[in-house]
């Protein structure tokens, strides 16, 4: 009797496990050394264009935290198609209260955003370069900086991501804008905004898992009934 109960419990546990969705750990689109080295002093949307080499789900948007000591300002971060269609946006608040992965701080999206393989996209973040009546704060410590990379520090993009070029918005404004212009400041890259993603893998739909689990449970009950006869 104990063996039959154990068998039924094992099958039921297997069915429950199979009915649960597989969880993937999100990874960062790019990782950089902890050495913020640029701030052009403009209130402007700045970021970079990239191509998705494989279908991916973007799960969070983030911003570089130079020194890993918290953000000075809140930053609105946006993700667009290369034709300026906004796919997602959110605000990463100042301070240290957000999720830190590597040298970036992230906020999760309400729902993942699917990016298609072979398509170009743009990520950008609003940087606040001015203070008190529009004057530039002379102390760089009072502003969040970003990475503008020449040959160093090292940058490592995930294999699913191909960097295209740095981007800035054509207007200087306190609102988030699509960064239309390839950087005019001579930056090789503007790696302030970033994102987390998971691979868009083909997995069985939840109803398929449920049916499979029900079939296993049915077999267990049938086996138990036969052994009682």
Oligomer: single chain
Residue windows where pLDDT falls under 50 for at least 5 positions: 15-21, 131-136, 202-212
Distance between the termini: 13 Å
- Write the H/E string, N to C: HEEEEEEEEEEEEEEEEEH
Number of helices: 2
Q: How many strands appear in the DSSP assignment?
A: 17
Architecture per CATH nomenclature, i.e. the level-2 architecture of the largest domain: Sandwich
| Coarse shape | globular
CATH topology (fold) name of the largest domain: Jelly Rolls
Commentary on this structure:
The chain has 229 residues and is an alpha+beta fold. The chain has two domains: 2-21 and 205-228; 27-199, Jelly Rolls, CATH 2.60.120. It is built from two helices and 17 strands. It has helices at residues 2-19, 206-228; strands at residues 27-28, 30-32, 44-52, 56-64, 75-81, 86-92, 99-101, 104-115, 120-127, 130-131, 135-136, 147-148, 155-157, 161-168, 181-182, 190-191, 193-199. It has a six-stranded antiparallel sheet, with no helix packed on it. α1 runs antiparallel to α2 (206-228). It is globular and about 40 Å long. 28% of the residues are buried. Residues 15-21, 131-136 and 202-212 have low confidence and may be disordered.
Essential attributes:
alpha+beta, Jelly Rolls, 6-stranded antiparallel beta sheet, 5-stranded antiparallel beta sheet, 17 strands, 18% helix, globular
């Amino acid at each position: 009797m104990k063996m039959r109960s154990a068998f039924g419990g094992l099958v039921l546990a297997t069915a429950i496990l199979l009915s649960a969705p597989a969880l993937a750990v999100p990874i960062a689109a790019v990782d950089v050394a902890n050495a913020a080295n640029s701030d052009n002093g403009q209130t402007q949307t700045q970021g970079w264009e990239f191509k998705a080499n494989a279908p991916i789900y973007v799960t969070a948007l983030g911003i570089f935290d130079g020194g890993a000591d918290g953000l000075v300002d809140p930053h609105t971060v946006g993700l667009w198609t290369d034709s300026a269609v906004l796919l997602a946006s959110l605000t990463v608040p100042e301070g240290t209260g957000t999720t830190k992965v590597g040298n970036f701080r992230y906020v999760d999206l309400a729902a993942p955003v699917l990016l298609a393989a072979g398509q170009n996209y743009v990520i950008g973040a609003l940087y606040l370069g001015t203070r008190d009546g529009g004057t530039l704060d002379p102390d760089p410590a009072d502003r969040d900086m970003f990475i503008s990379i020449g040959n160093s520090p090292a940058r490592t993009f995930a294999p699913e991501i191909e960097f295209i070029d740095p981007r800035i918005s054509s207007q200087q404004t306190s609102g988030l804008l699509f960064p239309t212009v390839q950087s005019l400041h001579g930056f090789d890259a503007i790696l302030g905004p970033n994102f987390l993603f998971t691979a868009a893998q083909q997995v069985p739909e939840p109803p398929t898992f449920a049916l499979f689990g029900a079939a296993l449970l049915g077999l267990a009950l049938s086996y138990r009934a036969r052994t009682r006869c």
